[in-house]
Design a protein that fits this description.
binds iron/sulfur cluster
Length: 321
């Protein structure tokens, strides 16, 4: 089976069971992305390709760890040899850190408000980065909102000032104020991600009460002026009720503005009862739209230095998958 096909099917499932040799060092436990708050997730790699899958002991798709990271993926009666990747923080090759693990907003698809985590101190984050320094090539920062959007931004700016000591590319994805792009750029941040989340304004209004869709566009456009084409990213979830045409229009609007869409299969959490993960067929259809729109706009995800487009664990990424 071709990698794109296999990854689409695995992403549609979203999880695997894990057996074989002890694999604790390969299990990512984090407060964002697949597996957040659960029993963790693993990165399964084949050559330069990878996929991140939450662990679910009941899933019939199985990864058997043979030892030292060597692993077999058992899917639909076939065995695919690959390896498990050791996460830095949250993902391989990066320290991708969630600063504040709680949020005053309650986007219906997001696990952060439900996890009710705390804010990490700056010293704690410096220690986390230090502990993986020798095996990462980037630092990525995301956050919930503890008190207010403005207060969260100030805290993240303080943190970024300290992280510059590592001389690694820094990517930041927070809910922005109108000044966030200028302030991050002034600190030397390499890339930014501001998440549109939903393919249409109507879906955004239902899914993200209290957040401002128009501000996200203003901030993304300003970011492209400051950071350059292809250095600005935006997550859009696949499966919130949008049609393929609406998704295609959203992708084209983003790419025509110089922004790389990060198209993420929905992981239905408790606020989304009745929703399901998108099918592998739909993921492949949208992958082709994505590929064409990026090519037409001259955007290349292979150049991403930080965050999800560099990682590729959770999405089909044109040029990488
Ligand atoms: S693709 Fe993004 S959310 Fe998924 S593991 Fe990688 S960095 Fe985390």
């Amino acid at each position: 089976m071709q990698w794109t096909d296999l990854k689409a099917r695995l992403l549609s499932s979203g999880s695997v069971s894990l057996s074989g040799e002890p694999a604790d060092q390969f299990i990512a436990r984090s407060s964002a992305g697949p597996g957040a708050g659960g029993s963790g997730a693993v990165f399964f790699a084949m050559g330069s390709h990878r996929v991140k899958l939450a662990l679910d002991p009941l899933n019939r798709i199985e990864i058997v760890h043979r030892g030292n990271g060597v692993a077999d993926l058992c899917y639909d009666g076939t065995l695919t040899r690959g390896r498990l990747l050791r996460p830095g923080f949250h993902c391989p090759d990066q320290a991708f850190i969630t600063v504040t693990g709680s949020c005053i907003f309650s986007c219906r698809f997001c696990t952060v408000p439900r996890l009710g985590g705390r804010r990490k101190t700056i010293e704690e984050i410096m220690g986390m980065v230090e502990s993986v320094r020798q095996r990462i090539g980037a630092i990525s920062i995301t956050s919930g909102v503890l008190e207010s959007i403005e207060e969260e931004e100030s805290y993240v700016l303080e943190l970024v000032k300290r992280l510059r000591v590592y001389d690694l590319p820094i990517g930041v994805s927070i809910y922005p104020t109108d000044q966030t792009p200028d302030r991050l750029r002034a600190l030397g941040v390499a890339e930014v991600k501001f998440n549109l989340e939903a393919a249409t304004p109507a879906l955004f209004a239902t899914m993200c009460p209290g957040l401002d869709y128009d501000r996200l566009w203003r901030v993304m456009d300003r970011s492209v002026e400051l950071f350059g084409k292809g250095r600005v990213f935006s997550n859009v979830l696949i499966g919130l009720g949008e049609t393929d045409m609406e998704m295609e229009a959203c992708i084209s609007r983003l790419t025509s503005h110089g922004i790389i869409p990060v198209l993420r299969p929905l992981n239905p959490v408790e606020g989304l009862a009745g929703f399901s993960r998108p099918s592998a067929e739909r993921l492949k259809t949208i992958f082709i739209m994505h590929e064409q729109a990026l090519a037409a706009a001259g955007l290349d995800p292979r150049e991403a230095r930080t965050m999800c487009t560099n990682c590729t664990g959770c999405d089909l990424v044109p040029g990488r998958d």
